[in-house]
Amino acid sequence: MAKKIIILIMVGTIAYSALGWFIFDYLIGAYTDMNTTQIPGFKKTADQFNTSYLILSCAAYSALMVFVLVYLTNTTNAIRGTITGAIVGVLVAVMANSYWLASSNFYNNVYVALVDVAAAAISVGFLGFIITVVGNKISD
User: Fold this and answer.
1) What distance in Å separates the CA atoms of residue 76 and residue 95, rounded to the nearest whole number?
2) CA distances (Å), origin 123, targets 39, 72, 114, 129, 139
3) Which of these, 120, 117, 111, lies nearest to 65 by C-alpha position?
4) Radius of gyration of the chain (CA)
5) Whole-model pTM?
6) CA distance 26 to 133
7) Nearest-angstrom CA–CA distance, 125 and 83
8) What is the DSSP letter of 37?
9) Domain spans of the chain, in order of start
10) What 3-state class would DSSP assign to 140?
């Protein structure tokens, strides 16, 4: 079981990193940049960006989903894995974005936060799908 969990976390990390880049940087990155407060020094430049921490973030999300889908619920149905991922993505994004909306001027409006929630539903739903499908192919 430990081998399966480690493989699923690694596969999930790679899949979530790739899809996350596509959705959050390529598809909605410009929109997010236009609708968030640009505080000098808040966002790192491309030269300052630390890919290791981004990978760690993706690995943590992947580990959370593996824990939920494999350890807690033993989900084997790809649709159920996708829906579970989408729900977790929405809840985590609502939690984080509500905090930012309540405590800062980071978001210029609520709509950019809602776009982020929708993007989280898609990306973490996909993560749930990948973990479920690949998990079905790995023996315990």
Assistant:
1) 28
2) 27, 21, 14, 10, 26
3) 120
4) 16
5) 0.93
6) 26
7) 6
8) -
9) 2-137
10) coil
Distance of CA 125 to the CA centre of its chain: 9
Q: Which residue has the tokens 């407060």?
A: 37
Would you state the structure tokens that stand for residue 93, as one six-digit string? 């994004």
Residues ≥6 apart with Cβ < 8 Å to 31: 112, 115
Residue 82 and residue 132 in contact, taking contact as beta carbons nearer than 8 Å? yes
Q: Are 17 and 54 in contact (CB under 8 A)?
A: yes
pLDDT in tens, 22-73: 999 999 999 999 999 888 888 888 899 999 999 999 999 999 999 999 999 9
